[in-house]
Amino acid sequence: MATTSQPLRGKTTCKKIFWAVFPHACFILSLVIYAFLGALMFSHIEGTREVTVSEEYRTFLQNLTYLTRNFSDNVTENEKFNEDIRELFNTADPVWFINPEERWSFFGSLFFCCTVFTTVGYGNTYPVTRSGKYLCMLYALFGIPLMFLVLTDMGDILATVLSKSYNEFRKLQSKILASKLCSGSTCSKRNELKSRAQSKIVINEPLTIMEVLRSQSGVKAVKYRNVELFEMLIARENENTQPTRNKSMERWSSCPELAREKTVSRVIKNFDKIGKELEKLDVPIVLMVLVIFVYISCAAAILPNWEKNMDFQEAFYFCFITLTTIGFGDTKLEHPKFFLFFSLYIIIGMEIVFIAFKLGQDRLIVLYKKVISFCAEKKMPSKKIYPK
């Protein structure tokens, strides 16, 4: 029996782990599939578009050829030429100098989809065709809520890890301080007091009905006239103290669908608990700022390895603008393919920034409450006590 029960226990634990991880994996997998489908869609629409020469492009070429023909070696005219050529290139559309097949490859389209549903939007890649613009709006309409759902779900995991680690750190800190402040004699006295208090707590545990009846055997029988009532209470207590697992195991062994229904209900409850751990998180905002600084610094040290046009400061600025979903687009990536493998870093970093913003929001609400209550107390008229 022991050999058969051990594999069954292993299977049940594996099932429990699977159903516990299933909601989180479902959200992440759906976001990945959504990104890949969007990459295929935009690479097909924008990558295969026909490049037509517009009237603006023709006038741009005409003005450019006119300026180059009138160029001379004179210094004053050369300065004027620089100003004219700068103004001319400011009117140029970047789409004229882009090959759609290279820009809208699968990895380029995947990078564009990530910038859409993360609301970063650098601005260097955008749809040109009318159908691509309409599909971009529709894609963002469903992709942004899905991204925020993934952020909230993963935020619960990070909030649990942060709160537990912070609480363990506080406990360790309190133990270290207590060991430093506590001497040998005082510690022994405190331990004796704790042991006495624990022994008192054990003695003062609530008694059962049977123990009360045995202890009150010398009391007059007038107080216990209703013997049937006590017998019913004892029978009910015995039913409550019996383990209910046997009944459930008997039902599950006779009807396995009940156990399956119970696991499914637990998974549905896990979906309902999304965002609860994030609401309970209470750690110092300074700690979150420090975590963000260390997290961005690690990426800023790695990113210049494949982006040669960036140094540490430029990469730090780029990561901050990306994780806060500002996305000016002033810093461009030469190799977006490598940055796509950095997408997990972006999602986790957005989680950390999202948690920091949530903590800052809570602190601001508390501050506003204190200010409003303080102003209300100042405006309230003082109560005058009149003599009777």
TrEMBL record:
Subcellular compartments: Membrane
One MF annotation (Gene Ontology) recorded for this entry: outward rectifier potassium channel activity
Residues in Potassium channel domain copies: 95-158, 291-361
Domain of life the protein comes from: Eukaryota
Signal peptide: none
Keywords linked to the UniProt accession: Ion channel, Ion transport, Membrane, Potassium, Transmembrane, Transmembrane helix, Transport
Membrane topology: Multi-pass membrane protein
Pfam families (alphabetical): Ion_trans_2
TM region positions: 17-42, 104-122, 134-152, 283-303, 315-333, 339-360
One of the GO BP terms on file: stabilization of membrane potential
GO cellular component: plasma membrane
Family according to the record: Belongs to the two pore domain potassium channel (TC 1.A.1.8) family.
Protein's recorded name: KCNKI protein
Source organism of the structure: Prunella himalayana
